[in-house]
Amino acid sequence: MPKEFYGYIAGILMSIAYLPQIYRVLKTKSAKDFSYWMLGLYASATFLWGVHGLIFKSNSMVIFNGVVFLQILAVIMLKFFYSKK
């Protein structure tokens, strides 16, 4: 089995798991159930896991934590946008 097999599987699952949240925010045009505090902590954690992946040369960690980081940033931007309306 390739060296990062489980990392890629975990990354795919982690990335897919956040998609329903983004879909719900877009559908309801509301992200009031998300706190900026939680989103900030989660974004910080995924960013740091990505840095960890860079340091230890783990492509799966870099790729998928980057993907999830972007998903979280999207929710933060949507929360900000929808809270202004």
Number of strands: 0
* Low-pLDDT stretches: none
Radius of gyration: 14 Å
Q: What is the 3D shape?
A: elongated
Distance between the termini: 51 Å
Please write the string of helix (H) and strand (E) elements. Answer: HHH
Beta percentage is: under 5%
**Structure class:** mainly alpha
Q: How many alpha or pi helices?
A: 3
Q: Indicate the mean pLDDT.
A: 95
Q: What's the main sheet like?
A: none
**Percent range of helical residues:** over 70%
Summarize the structure.
This protein is mainly alpha-helical and 85 residues long. Helices cover 81% and strands 0% of the residues.
Summarize the helices and strands and which ones pair or pack.
Elements: H1 5-28, H2 36-55, H3 59-83
Polypeptide structure, described:
The chain has 85 residues and is mostly helical. It contains 3 helices and no strands. It has helices at 5-28, 36-55, 59-83. Helix 1 runs parallel beside helix 3 and helix 2 (36-55) packs antiparallel against helix 3 (59-83). The longest helix has 25 residues, at 59-83. The chain is elongated, with a radius of gyration of 14 Å. The protein starts with a helix and ends with a helix.
Keywords:
mainly alpha; 85 residues; single chain; 81% helix; 3 helices
